[in-house]
């Protein structure tokens, strides 16, 4: 079944009359849980994470430090059903195991599927091993179901449809993020709209293709005049080679024909480092559509 057929089928199901009443279409909620780029904890922004919630089901994309608390603040803690990791850098996966563990320690009894590049399965197994003492105590003393059987990992190695259920089709595309073996962007085609999350990437035609005609593109952004690191440092070289200047992000959004561009994973990452006006001006050079500068807990 292709994407269009699937979406038409879901829309038909959502509008079907049951017991004389039409069933409402489930609308997607996009919440920016953390909008800072880089591994160092920030004072004014949380680490990279966003969640798409459809009904009572949450699709978490990346899980930097503190993501469980951000979910709690956003009022969506307890919705977790899927986790999608763009790549294995600590500002994107530092709390990969923790967010599931903390959810389980609260009330998680349903399965959680985790998707991402290798060595995802080994990482989760090592996490369970590291936390075995805590897991054993909570099973014995609190009556919780064993956690490892609830978590299903799926390693992604190439472009294509990642998963589909009755609320979304998720498609991935490999993107260039030098020194990382595999990095992915994800597209969520929900019943009501399409949302693309870039992850970390240098300017890429792969994003343009994945985001073609999307309603929302959440794209990382770099403000070059204030990029971290000395001019000739290895840090500056990595940042310039691996990330997308905000002007190029506008160009990508324009080429893809998206309706709304959301700037996130901002580098530099403190709110007082670059003003919203500066971010907007950079993206506006090449994109005439709606632009939103991401801030933690913003819902779109």
Oligomeric grouping of the chains: single chain
* Poorly predicted runs: 15-20
CATH first level? Alpha Beta
- Cα-atom Rg, whole angstroms? 19 Å
Major pleated sheet: 7 strands, mixed
- Care to count the β-strands? 16
- How does CATH name the architecture? 4-Layer Sandwich
The strand line-up of the biggest sheet is 8-7-6-5-4-3-16
Q: Structural class given helices, strands, pairing?
A: alpha/beta
Distance between the termini: 29 Å
State the share of residues found in helices, binned by percent. 25-40%
The CATH topology annotation reads as: Metallo-beta-lactamase, Chain A
Mean pLDDT: 93
Can you tell me the overall shape? globular
* Share of residues in strands: 25-35%
How many helix segments? 10
Count of the separate structural domains = 1
CATH homologous group name: Ribonuclease Z/Hydroxyacylglutathione hydrolase-like
Helices and strands, in order, run as: HEEEEEHEHHEHHEEEEEHEHHEHEE
């Amino acid at each position: 079944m292709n994407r269009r057929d699937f979406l038409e089928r879901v829309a038909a199901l959502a509008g079907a009359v049951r017991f004389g009443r039409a069933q409402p279409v489930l609308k997607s909620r996009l919440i920016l849980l953390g909008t800072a780029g880089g591994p160092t904890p920030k004072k004014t922004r949380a680490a990279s994470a966003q969640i798409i919630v459809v009904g009572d089901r949450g699709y978490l994309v990346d899980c930097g430090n503190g993501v469980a608390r951000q979910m709690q603040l956003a009022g969506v803690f307890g919705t977790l059903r899927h986790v999608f990791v763009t790549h294995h850098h600590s500002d994107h996966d530092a709390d990969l195991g923790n967010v599931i563990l903390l959810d389980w320690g609260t009330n998680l009894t349903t399965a959680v599927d985790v998707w991402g590049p290798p060595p995802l399965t080994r990482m989760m197994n090592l996490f369970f091993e590291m936390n075995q003492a805590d897991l054993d105590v909570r099973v014995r003393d609190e009556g919780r179901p064993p956690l490892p059987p609830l978590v299903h990992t799926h390693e992604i190695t190439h472009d294509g449809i990642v998963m589909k259920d009755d609320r979304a089709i998720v498609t991935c595309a490999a993107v260039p993020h030098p020194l990382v073996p595999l990095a992915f962007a994800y597209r969520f085609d929900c019943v009501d709209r399409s949302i693309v999350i870039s992850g970390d990437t240098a300017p890429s035609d792969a994003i343009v293709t994945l985001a073609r005609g999307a309603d929302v593109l959440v794209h990382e952004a770099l403000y070059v005049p204030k990029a971290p690191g000395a001019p000739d440092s290895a840090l500056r070289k990595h940042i310039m080679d691996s990330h997308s200047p905000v002007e190029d992000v506008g160009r990508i959004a324009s080429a893809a024909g998206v309706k709304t561009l959301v700037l996130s994973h901002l580098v530099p990452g403190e709110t007082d480092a670059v003003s919203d006006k500066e971010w907007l001006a950079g993206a506006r050079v090449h994109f005439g559509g709606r632009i939103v500068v991401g801030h933690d807990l913003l819902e779109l």
